[in-house]
Amino acid sequence: MSILVIADHDNKVLKPATLNVVAAAQKIGGDVHVLVAGADCGAVAEAASKVAGVAKVLHADNAAYGHFLAENLGLLVAEMGKGYSHVLTSAGTTGKDFMPRVAALLDVAQISDIIRVDSADTFVRPIYAGNAIATVQSSDAIKVITVRPTGFDPVAAEGGSAAVESVGAAHDAGISSFVKEELAKSDRPELTSANIVVSGGRGMQNGDNFEMLYKVADKLGAAVGASRAAVDAGFVPNDMQVGQTGKIVAPQLYIAVGISGAIQHLAGMSDSKVIVAINKDEEAPIFQVADYGLVADLFEAVPQLEAELDKVL
Amino acid sequence: MKVLVAVKRVIDYNVKVRVKPDNTGVDLTNVKMAMNPFCEIAVEEAVRLKEKGVATEVVVVSIGPKAAQEQIRTALALGADRGIHVETDEEIQSLAAAKLLKAVVEKEQPKLVILGKQSIDTDNNQTGQMLAALCGYAQGTFASEVVVEGDKVNVTREIDGGLLTVALNLPAIVTTDLRLNEPRYASLPNIMKAKKKPLDTVTPADLGAEIAPRLTTLKVEAPAQRQAGIKVGSVAELVDKLKNEAKVI
User: DSSP labels for chain B?
Assistant: First the structure.
């Protein structure tokens, strides 16, 4: 039995989520092969070959895969996946985009966003915005799976010495093309892999006030997130949204500022180790999950927090 | 051009779900049901395309029990022209839904199919992509902007790092993200008019699709409950607790 993991990367660096997916693959058991598909992504294949526990790296380098278009990537992964018992990738927006296409081409079900492996055919995943946890068993010959990275501790990025094998297959469906990309620029850690996340909600009142959170975040080396209310109100870009429809995070410390704690937001952060809530409404649902709650006006509390951090850090 | 929209009947998003004591699933008896929020956005986008003169007809399809006709009527009240109900009481998983929708696509020949990016019950986020694969069409998932230009559609997608725009050959599949639009409310006159709009009922057998489930749900459990912690009196106390008690900073 061998398992194919599709690496998550940007043609330059291997994204850390891949290490969590390899960990999930190891829980299933069997040889783990990693497919690095992209354009001019040799450095990524090299990085993948060093990941602990990886037996082989397959490197498919072709302009057709450069922007990870699902139409092209789907054909490649479906062709390669035929030789494996399991095909896994991380449940980021890229994996969510191409993986169901792979499953349909292989005529198998997909198991989305797993948080636990019970056995080679049985997996655990959240449903209803994390308000229920389902254990599902697959009867398909090939298990196509997306993995929630926060559900698995990552394997070491160094220590492996897998052989890199070049894959010649060039699949270009010719029905879609890349037009442009607008990436949010930030020096802060990536939201989904940050140890500390500071998030703001509607209570922040406007985008300029997020500056207060950025200051606190920079002191803590934290990423900054947001609730859907803050995104919809235009305070911050959508890629900062934490929740059922945004990103799922599980940091060591999650500080929710001016966030009421709707079901959809809790779905994205309730697995955090320690949750802090700062809210002036003491009835806010966020206090029901917060380890430490402070009932206070955030416009007073956040600058104080910044000052207090200066004293202890 | 003709636009096909798929809608799903799900538990209302405001309802706090309860897991059944026997762990077979979530209790849906006497629970408020509604159209999946992402599907509402799909209907709204199709209706806007019609108002712009891009779409000529908006057909809405739903797969599910008899009661799913309520959601089709809602879509008709929002501006869709006619409905197709694929009636079944069986559990329809994403792959089966995609196969049924493919049969509808073959019959209706829409230029654009719009679905929600995920349903808020199963949270699978699969059906649109699977339908695109089965039809051999391009896909624009997690769309926050859809612009039809000639025989192509430009879709701006919400991705992890920001936004990405792709150009897709028509016919194509689009799945909606929350920020694509703000769905309208159905007015009472439109709700009355919707009752007279055509709604065809077909069965999975009529469509000739294989719908047997591939996944078996062994059990459904409530998640581990987080306990409410303590309230602190000041920022200084909070920082002290984080440093010395929780040791996370």
Answer: -EEEEEE-EEE-TTS---B-TTSSSB--TT--EEE-HHHHHHHHHHHHHHHTTS-SEEEEEEEESGGGHHHHHHHHHTT--EEEEEE--S---HHHHHHHHHHHHHHH--SEEEEES--TTT----HHHHHHHHHT-EEEEEEEEEEEETTEEEEEEEETTEEEEEEEESSEEEEE-GGG--PPPPPHHHHHHHTTS-EEEE-HHHHT-----SEEEEEEEPPPPPPP-EEESSHHHHHHIIIIIS---
